[in-house]
């Protein structure tokens, strides 16, 4: 046999062995559970390697009609693109497979992981809706692991809405799940490490720094064994703890090290830059402080989801430029802050709005006026000064118009609610507002259509309506958790009839009907009871029959187009 034939034979053999090995690896991955796939993927640190594996699996499963394999292929692509907008596409692909297969378990996973990825994109309210869909299945099937996983992400939402104390109890409860059985830590290693990280961060948020330090040390060690992808996050929490303990010089190296791992995770990278900036500020290192403030602003330019950090950074940049007397840079930062504030107002309207490092809109506008005046006097070029003055004046007028119009609309909505109450009627804010507006073309078309009928006898309809009237006056909805079935049973009818009557006679579905009753109750009581107004939003929501503060705020805003805190503040002014 010639040398060329020998070489050709060896190459073919190696290719065949390599191809067979790749096939075995793919088969091995497809035999894993979703939890095992997540743990497996979390310990691959190279992004390129993750992409190669996920692409190979997806390419292979697309040749098959096996929907279980398709699900795992899409699941790996979701894990590969975690924290990125593209992950939403693969979550939707999982839900598509679940619907084709009619598999509630896969559907629950699709909803959960879509919620998680929406959270990473800062779409908090939408993320909550997907968590709740997943929870219905896992709670019904008593799946303890996924119940604690959902609780983990609800806890993160509570942090985002400013409810850090309750979030801490959630994370403690999750850790107790893993500590009751050592095998659970290795079986669900990735989630255990995430729960550990959340607990450490929560201790920082609640100023329990000694406890945070203990968790940091455990997490740094455990993450290297169970989930290497979480190692840089423990470097972040350690740096944060050192900062809060007034020892920024001890944490800065860990924070800088963390940034090397987080280049693809832009939200976390921005968080790291913020902690580094805070540490350098405490160390009086203005040069390094400026460097990382500008990095935060640069990340935000490409990744708008980092808006809260950009808001803080531009406030700090303004202070820095004021300190060194750079008035044009001050104006640039103020313009950015005004723009960012409108984004925060829109994107985070369902969450408690934070004041930007002591800055509010009136102060910003006042500072802007002063700077315009100073620049006008200092400028050597009348043409340049005139241009700047005209441009900034126009910008100021637009900003003022926006906020004046917004305040007018909010006050108008509040006044309609109060007018209804003064007439001894149930407040129906959203309806009242719409009555004072021109009907849309869609509403005119709807009004011309023949009205639907329920197909239920008039006597039965009146009997159900009478029962609903008694139910509304009794205010039992504030004390007991009602479902369509439980209320139907209480009214001696069935759920189908009750649902039809509510839809046609009340003009909404059962869920909205119940929420509207609770909001009407809250509005009436807030208006008449000054002591009730002094309660926390959380306490008001519970007294009104809601499970938590977030769902109450969402329902209140949906019905009245106002935030509960704004409504209470206006009531106090009225007294």
What report would you give on this structure?
- The protein is mainly alpha-helical and 575 residues long.
- Among the domains are: 47-121; 429-438 and 451-574, Homeodomain-like (Arc Repressor Mutant, subunit A, Orthogonal Bundle).
- It is built from 30 helices and no strands.
- It has helices at residues 3-30, 34-42, 47-61, 67-80, 86-101, 104-120, 124-140, 144-160, 164-179, 182-187, 189-205, 209-226, 231-244, 248-261, 266-282, 286-302, 307-324, 327-347, 361-378, 382-422, 429-435, 441-448, 458-474, 484-490, 495-505, 510-528, 530-533, 537-543, 549-560, 564-574.
- The longest helix has 41 residues, at 382-422.
- The termini are far apart.
- Residues 8-23, 349-363 and 426-452 have low confidence and may be disordered.
How do the helices and strands line up, and which of them pair or pack?
Layout: H1 3-30, H2 34-42, H3 47-61, H4 67-80, H5 86-101, H6 104-120, H7 124-140, H8 144-160, H9 164-179, H10 182-187, H11 189-205, H12 209-226, H13 231-244, H14 248-261, H15 266-282, H16 286-302, H17 307-324, H18 327-347, H19 361-378, H20 382-422, H21 429-435, H22 441-448, H23 458-474, H24 484-490, H25 495-505, H26 510-528, H27 530-533, H28 537-543, H29 549-560, H30 564-574
